[in-house]
């Protein structure tokens, strides 16, 4: 028996007639929680970082731009290039949805190194961001579920969800699977690695670990998530674009981790 849910409006509330969407609130929550967590980590930082409050404010400006620009361009290039070539103005219509985690990740990495201005400092900052980032993923996936986006494949499982008046068949609530694994579980693991392991002494090691762990969780969750309708499966045996990108991400993370831990700092 599937779980029956009444759809929730994608608009949380309005301010002076302007709609405020759950997706926007998820981004705001992710940035706010991430900011205060990062500030807390910097007070107890053991990796030599010395960022003032102004530096932290500037860093988050870079990060916000990296997430938005990278996430949108990633979706345009990876998921729907043909459509956006025909409708170029839609690239700027972010309120219509369409953000790529892998693109956002690239945007954050580029923005962080632009801010840091050198490799060592950039990797140290990325290590702390690797601990914080999963909470932003958690909020984003919850918003995906509210918006009934990136829903899962049809299922007869008791975990299946049926949205009244919207769903055709019960489906896996894959955004919730991703919120639990790529979000909460990944945060717990990364925090434990930061707090109880010696990886923070090796700039880049925590960042590499986060890339590998996220890739594993994403590849697993893609087994329940329906592929984008206009892309479908990439192979006859069911490879999705998300799994392909995550596989590349895992290899990159492994290389970064291996290089970071090869020599003691």
Keywords:
265 residues, mainly alpha, two-stranded parallel ribbon, two-stranded antiparallel ribbon
Give an overview of the whole structure.
This protein is mainly α and about 260 residues long. It has one domain (about 5-260). The protein has helices spanning about 20-45, 55-80, 80-85, 100-115, 120-145, 175-195, 205-220, 240-260, and strands at about 5, 10-15, 20, 160-165. Strands 1-4 form a two-stranded parallel ribbon. Strands 2-3 form a two-stranded antiparallel ribbon. A hairpin with a 2-residue loop joins strand 2 (about 10-15) and strand 3 (about 20). Helix 6 runs antiparallel to helix 7. The radius of gyration is 19 Å and the shape is globular. About 40% of the residues are buried. The mean pLDDT is about 90.
């Amino acid at each position: 028996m599937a779980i029956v849910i009444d759809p929730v409006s994608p608009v949380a509330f309005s301010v002076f007639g302007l709609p405020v969407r759950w997706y926007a609130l998820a981004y705001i929550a992710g940035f706010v929680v991430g900011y205060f967590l990062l500030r807390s980590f910097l007070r107890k930082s053991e990796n030599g970082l010395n960022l003032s409050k102004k530096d932290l404010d500037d860093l988050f400006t870079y990060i916000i731009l990296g997430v938005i620009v990278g996430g949108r361009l990633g979706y345009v290039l990876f998921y729907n290039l043909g459509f956006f070539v025909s409708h170029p103005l839609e690239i700027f219509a972010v309120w219509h949805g369409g953000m790529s985690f892998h693109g956002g990740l690239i945007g954050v990495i580029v923005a962080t190194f632009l801010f840091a201005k050198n490799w060592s400092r950039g990797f140290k900052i990325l290590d702390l961001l690797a601990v914080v980032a999963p909470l932003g993923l958690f909020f984003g996936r919850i918003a995906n579920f509210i918006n009934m986006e990136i829903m899962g494949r049809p299922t007869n499982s008791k975990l299946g969800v049926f949205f009244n008046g919207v769903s055709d068949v019960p489906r896996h609530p894959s955004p919730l699977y991703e919120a639990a694994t790529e979000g909460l579980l990944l945060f717990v693991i990364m925090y434990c690695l930061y707090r109880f392991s010696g990886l923070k002494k090796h700039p880049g090691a925590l960042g590499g670990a986060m890339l590998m762990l996220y890739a594993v969780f994403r590849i697993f969750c893609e087994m329940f998530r329906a592929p984008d309708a206009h892309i479908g499966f990439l192979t006859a045996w069911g490879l999705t674009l998300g799994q392909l990108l995550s596989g590349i991400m895992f290899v990159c993370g492994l290389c970064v981790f291996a290089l970071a831990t090869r020599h003691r700092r």
